[in-house]
Design goal:
Layout lengths: L3 E7 L2 E6 L5 E5 L13 H24 L7 E9 L4 E11 L6 H12 L2 H5 L5 E8 L1
Parallel strand pairs: 5-6
Antiparallel strand pairs: 1-2, 2-3, 4-5
Helix pairs in contact: 1-2
């Protein structure tokens, strides 16, 4: 089964449909690349997918350890390079509710995040700057 199907709508926009669920997402070129920035750009999705993958893998481990990660927040910042135009770095700041996690539990969760499938799929030239804050 296909993962997704996309249609170019013109004006630098696409609509992507997740085949299994029918969920749709839209992309738009960013302002600095002739777009209108009315939705995620493809490179925004890469950076966002990294954060989503990290917290999902942490959630799987948290469920196994009976840890509540609800209300964990992430702020994602993507940096672009030129010549060639590409993602140069992705910053993700996690804000994780403390909930009396032990140092060992924190290390396990962070290790899982840093080794998620998207993190391991991103080219090593793209710097991944990840910070975990427990509040």
């Amino acid at each position: 089964m296909n993962t997704s199907e996309l249609v170019y709508q013109g004006d630098l926009r696409t609509v992507a449909t997740h085949v299994f669920s029918g969920t749709q997402i839209f992309t738009d070129a960013p302002l600095d690349n002739n777009g209108k920035a009315q939705s995620f750009s493809p490179t925004d999705l890469v950076a966002t997918a990294l954060a989503s993958c990290m917290v999902t893998i942490m959630g799987i481990e948290a469920n196994r350890l009976n840890i509540n990660l609800d209300d964990t927040k992430m702020v994602v910042k993507k940096h672009m390079a030129i010549n060639p135009r590409r993602i140069s770095s992705i910053e993700i700041k996690f804000d994780i509710p403390e909930r009396n996690l032990t140092l060992d539990q924190k290390r396990v969760l962070e290790n899982r995040a840093l080794n998620c499938p998207v993190a391991k799929s991103i080219h090593p030239d793209i710097l991944q700057e990840i910070s975990f804050i427990y509040s």
